[in-house]
Amino acid sequence: MLISAKLKPIALATSLVLTLAACSEDTTSTQGPNFGGGTTDPGNGGGTNFDEKALVANLVDNVITPTFTAFNQQATANHATLSQYCSVEKAAALGEASEEQRLDALTNAQTSWRDTTTLWQHAEVMQMGPLVENEGELRNLIYSWPAKSLCGVDQDTAYFEDGVINLDSNRPYDIKQRTATRRGLVSLEHLLFSEQLNHSCSIANDALADWNNRTDSERRIARCEFAVEVASDLVDNSQVLLDKWNGDTGYAMTLKNAGEVGSSFDSAHQAVNVISDALFYLTEEVKDKKLGIPLGYESNSCGLEACPQDVESPIAAQSLANIQANLAAFEKLFTGNGSVEGNTTGFDDFLVEEEGADTKDAMLTGLQESNQVIESINGSLQQALVSEKEKVEQTHAKVKDVTDQLKHDFINKLALELPKSSAGDND
């Protein structure tokens, strides 16, 4: 759990401010006062003397770039681990490796997937530039959730093994041409964690016609071989992200050069707004989808009641760890506490400069309390929805404490604009 060292005890008066702010939230507002207004510093553009270029530079260099780099490195290591697992799976089929060795190699592969997914869940909260262009195409190739297709993954497992699509010799298999739901981390979760070896399709096509009659070993080998291919594709896409982010013409430099001659941003304030938009992942994805939908606060597979099968990661039971990673990434972006200890310029400092220390404290307290409730849950999110539903409801409420501040006082104090997806959100 990552909780900023800047967090200080909060007086009762501050709690009262938080309560009143949440109750009086003006959800019809789309931007803070003075958005894009005049300033004594033409590089800012938000009506403040706070050094917004320094804020952008620190978040880019010490928070976002290290996250994308670490994901690329872990994706590469993950590919190697899965390749090793598949080698052991094949050796076991030949009697050249024991069942214990096979299970140990599988466990290592699953652990590697968890490590890779956790790093990606940090990057999930940093969606901007290459991760949002073309309607999030690159992001979806890495992590397609909430879209998924277990049947599609099973079909592509058979297609990859055959080298052609659905036994058609005129359609050679190429993962780069396949849809996002058959690739990435969501696909790997099914391939590595599903204990059911039968295919997931209601109707088997030609390629899957004899799948359920094959031996367990044959099916595990087919799945692990496709998992290695998916992991290789994941490495490629993590590198595409880095290439689009880094370099003299990368998006990182575009953000840091905001307000300068030739920049696509008129001011540093606009670049700050791009980064602040990413913070709303906590509202739309964590609060509403990862918690609200399984709780039945919004329509789900069970109607409008608790629905364990609708959690984010039902096969690997990774849902709570994902949410904690999202909270940790949000805090890094908010506080600027990244790879360089000597530079922690963050939104919290901006809030203090704009007389929003109470908002800063309320948001950090909400993050801390969200984590505390999650850590008190025994087992997975699926289990908690059945046996400890009140704790899941508390987690939702604590995350909402943060997002209420984000949508109201945070935006208003810093004269920022709400992302279009959050404008008019009455929750």
UniProtKB/TrEMBL annotation:
Domain Imelysin-like: start-end pairs: 64-406
Signal sequence segment: 1-24
Keywords: Signal
Species the sequence originates in: Pseudoalteromonas piratica
Biased composition (Gly residues): 34-48
Region annotated Disordered, chain positions: 27-49
Gene3D superfamilies the record matches: M75 peptidase, HXXE motif
Keyword Transcription assigned: no
Annotated compartments: Cell envelope
UniProt name for this protein: Peptidase M75
Cross-referenced Pfam families: Peptidase_M75
PROSITE patterns xrefs: PROKAR_LIPOPROTEIN (PS51257)
InterPro entries: Imelysin-like (IPR018976), Imelysin-like_IPPA (IPR034984), Imelysin_sf (IPR038352)
GO cellular component: cell envelope
